[in-house]
């Protein structure tokens, strides 16, 4: 068999690209002939995986600045279509194509190329771009989770985009381009979910085949943390509105509490000016993040959007650091059920402040810290288990619709959804 991994970029700046690189690594280690299509210059893959055959477009992602031509190219990138079509023309019957990110460079044109071939198509849903025009099921104007049917009249009329309504209309056009690959194509696409609770958000897109394979992660700190002996509140993530950093800032200002906020993003300068009493350094090296995590009393994940997984929150729990998560996070229910942290009302700074105040109790933090550490042992597969399951998916596809297949043999963190 041949594996083709498809992703917008080759440099790891987020979770989707990190997982894409892990898929390449797992495929090569299993002796699979591995090819890669990326929209940037491809140097990140060429450097890390010399054995992989890389096709690169040499283009820039939308987040690096929008050009006039992007209005067309990022809706339907002809170069991406031709590149993938040519790769599959070499032989597609024994090929598995694993798609990760496409919204920044490659565009929905890749699905039109895939629809022309018999290659097996797997898409890992790192977000909701398979169904939602803005990718987040979030109204960026109100901060509320959107419950409209994607592409419905209500969706069309909703000014939910983070930029403006014209951009929303462009995103709707891109979604129509994506859907126009044809229902016969989407009926055969297999979707890997980062979290099982993503499935209800995606099932209305005409997708039929779902399985959950949670992303492996490692503890945030080098050693288990006795959080009740520490006093640092910690946030680690992108400094964007949808990640809830303004809600966090309001709660910190309201209470006068200090915290460490690590991460890059468009709101970094705003956070640095709004929180002079906090440590807001931008991005830090992994070794420094580890050191700071070892001093954490609790971890904050204040996302406004339905956060698909919350990888960093899982890494915190694996370290024994209790978490305070937004009610919109898809892991919120399991955090509360396993005594691994607290849940606050999404977007409500007063609610967040109340939960932070509860962390003043040594007994509460110790109980949650111990609960987080125990649950962290089960929240996600180990790297070895994840690689084994991934290669099984590539080499021996499950029989969709066979109730309960292999479920009994799967550790927590894996689930077959029918």
First CA to last CA: what distance?
A: 26 Å
Q: What's the CATH H-level homologous superfamily of the largest domain?
A: Glycogen Phosphorylase B
CATH architectural group of the largest domain: 3-Layer(aba) Sandwich
Work out the number of β strands. Answer: 14
Estimate the global geometry from the Cα principal axes. Answer: globular
Instruction: Output the CATH class name of the largest domain.
Output: Alpha Beta
The low-pLDDT segments are 400-418
Arrangement of strands in the largest sheet: 3-2-1-4-5-6-7-14
Describe the oligomeric state of these chains in a short phrase. Answer: single chain
Mean pLDDT: 91
The amount of beta strand, in percent, is 15-25%
The biggest sheet amounts to: 8 strands, mixed
Structural class based on helices, strands and sheet pairing: alpha/beta
How many domains would you count in the coordinates?
2
Cα Rg: 21 Å
CATH topology of the largest domain: Rossmann fold
Q: How many helices does DSSP assign?
A: 17
The amount of helix comes to: 25-40%
Structure description:
The protein folds into two domains: 2-126 and 181-216 and 382-417, Glycogen Phosphorylase B (Rossmann fold, 3-Layer(aba) Sandwich), CATH 3.40.50; 227-376, 3-Layer(aba) Sandwich (Rossmann fold). The protein is 36% helix and 16% strand. The chain is built from 17 helices and 14 strands. The strands form two sheets. It has an eight-stranded mixed beta sheet, sandwiched between helices. It has a six-stranded parallel beta sheet with strand order 10-9-8-11-12-13, sandwiched between helices. Helix 4 (78-89) packs parallel to helix 5 (109-115) and helix 13 packs across helix 16. The two termini are 26 Å apart. Residues 14-129 form the Glycosyltransferase subfamily 4-like N-terminal domain. InterPro entries: Glyco_trans_4-like_N, Glycosyltransferase_grp1. Pfam families: Glyco_trans_1_4, Glyco_trans_4_4.
């Amino acid at each position: 068999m041949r594996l083709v991994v498809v992703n917008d970029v080759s440099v790891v700046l987020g979770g989707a690209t990190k997982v894409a690189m892990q898929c390449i690594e797992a495929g090569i280690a299993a002796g699979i002939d591995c090819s890669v299509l990326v929209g940037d210059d491809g140097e990140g893959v060429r450097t890390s995986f010399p054995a992989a055959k890389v096709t690169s477009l040499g283009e820039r992602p939308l987040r690096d600045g929008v050009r006039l031509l992007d209005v067309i190219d990022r809706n339907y990138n002809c170069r991406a279509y031709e590149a993938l079509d040519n790769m599959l023309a070499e032989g597609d019957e024994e090929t598995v194509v694993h798609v990760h990110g496409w919204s920044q460079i490659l565009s929905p044109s890749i699905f039109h190329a895939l629809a022309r071939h018999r290659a097996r198509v797997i898409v890992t849903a790192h977000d909701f771009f398979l169904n939602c025009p803005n990718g987040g099921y979030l109204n960026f104007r109100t901060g509320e989770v959107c419950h409209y049917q994607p592409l419905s009249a209500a969706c069309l009329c909703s000014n939910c985009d983070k930029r403006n309504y014209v951009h929303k209309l462009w995103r709707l056009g891109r979604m129509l381009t994506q859907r126009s690959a044809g229902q016969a194509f989407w009926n055969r696409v297999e979707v890997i979910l980062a979290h099982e609770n993503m499935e209800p958000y995606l099932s209305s897109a005409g997708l039929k085949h779902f399985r959950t394979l949670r992303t492996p992660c490692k503890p945030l700190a080098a050693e288990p943390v006795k959080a009740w002996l520490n006093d640092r509140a910690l946030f680690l993530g992108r400094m964007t509105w949808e990640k809830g950093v303004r809600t966090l800032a309001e709660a910190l200002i309201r209470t006068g509490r200090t915290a460490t906020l690590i991460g890059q993003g468009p709101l970094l300068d705003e956070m640095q000016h709004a929180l002079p009493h906090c440590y807001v350094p931008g991005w830090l090296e992994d070794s420094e993040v580890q050191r700071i995590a070892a001093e954490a009393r609790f971890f904050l994940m204040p996302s406004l959007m339905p956060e698909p997984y919350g990888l960093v929150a899982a890494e915190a729990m694996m370290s024994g650091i209790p978490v305070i998560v937004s009610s919109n996070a898809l892991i919120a229910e399991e955090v509360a059920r396993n005594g691994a942290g607290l849940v606050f009302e999404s977007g409500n700074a007063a609610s967040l402040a109340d939960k932070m105040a509860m962390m003043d109790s040594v007994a509460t933090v110790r109980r949650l810290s111990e609960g987080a550490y125990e649950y962290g042992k089960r929240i996600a597969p180990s790297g070895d288990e994840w690689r084994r399951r991934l290669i099984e998916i590539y080499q021996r596809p499950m029989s969709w619709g066979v109730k309960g297949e292999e479920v009994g043999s799967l550790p927590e963190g894996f689930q077959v959804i029918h």
